[in-house]
Amino acid sequence: MPTTRVAIAGLGAIGRVLARRLADGMPGLALACAAVRDRAKAQAWLDGERITCPLVEPEAFPAHADLAIECAPASALERICRPMLEAGKRVMVLSAGALLPRPDLIELAKTRGGQIIVPTGALVGLDAVTAAAEGRIHAVRMITRKPPRSLAGAPYLETNGISVDGLNTAKRVFAGTAREGAAGFPANVNVAAALSLAGIGPDRTLMEIWADPAVDRNCHTIEVDSDSARFTLSIENVPSENPRTGRITALSVLAALRKLEAPLRVGT
């Protein structure tokens, strides 16, 4: 089996899970390198975990890796993706919201023979949406409920002077399109961007975001009406050490990695 060399951009809550699993050994995959903002902190963690992994700049990924996984702040997307796509290689993107205003990256992947992979992430049932999109989808609506602290600091809240401090009841803090939601909550609603890319696009996918003190998980409800099926999907994701990210996101990336070379692949 050929070995796919994997680079990780970001060693936060998600990147650390991926680095540990790759270092422990996954068939056909090898941890090649990583890029981080704080090298001293990252090196101390790698040493503590006894993981051998060179730290490089994202621009050096193509020289080391066949696939790069982006699990960094959305602002770093260009530096991570563009060099790999220029080299005709693959990138796995978790900051799906940052893809919406950058269609040139998708065009670059097309012209250079590269590929952008958006894993299922926190959105169980994404396969059903991509299947329905092969026919005609009439409408998609998403309602997200999160603990208020996980939404604190979102650009949309700050721009509009919306506070989520001291809430006693659920408060709707946003209603609009997935494109608007991804721009206003870049660290919170990558699931909405992935949903829109899988279905009818970011301008027709509607969403609401609620700050709800009664929940301790990131809760998403998806309603899809299409010519092949009408379905509702609900999921409650346990937060990782980063309250903005569910634990299942890193596991979804691992599942996607296994599919790359798996003798049996289940799901589209």
Biggest sheet layout: 5 strands, parallel
What is the second-level CATH architecture of the largest domain? 3-Layer(aba) Sandwich
Order of helices and strands: EHEHHEHEHEHEHHEHHEEEH
Strand fraction:
15-25%
Strand order of the largest sheet: 2-1-3-4-5
Quickly name the level 1 CATH class of the largest domain: Alpha Beta
Distance between the termini: 22 Å
CATH fold-level topology of the largest domain: Rossmann fold
Task: Look at the helices and sheets and give the structural class.
Answer: alpha/beta
Shape: globular
Mean pLDDT: 93
Integer tally of domains: 2
Stretches with pLDDT under 50, minimum 5 residues: none
What's the alpha carbon Rg, rounded to whole Å?
A: 19 Å
- Report the helical percentage: 25-40%
Q: Number of DSSP strands? A: 10
Per DSSP, the total helix count is 11
Give keywords.
single chain, 268 residues, Rossmann fold, Dihydrodipicolinate Reductase, domain 2, 2 domains, five-stranded parallel β-sheet, 11 helices, 10 strands, 24% strand
Account of the protein in words:
- The chain has 268 residues and is of the alpha/beta class.
- It has two domains: 4-121 and 248-261, NAD(P)-binding Rossmann-like Domain (Rossmann fold); 126-243, Dihydrodipicolinate Reductase, domain 2, CATH 3.30.360.10.
- It has helices at residues 13-24, 39-49, 61-64, 77-86, 103-112, 126-132, 148-151, 155-159, 178-184, 190-198, 247-261; strands at 4-9, 29-35, 67-70, 90-93, 115-117, 137-146, 171-177, 205-211, 218-226, 230-237.
- The protein has a five-stranded parallel beta sheet with strand order 2-1-3-4-5, sandwiched between helices. It has a five-stranded mixed beta sheet with strand order 7-8-6-9-10.
- α4 (77-86) packs parallel to α5 and α9 packs antiparallel against α10 (190-198).
- It is globular, with a radius of gyration of 19 Å.
- The protein starts with a strand and ends in a 7-residue tail after the last helix.
- 43% of the residues are buried.
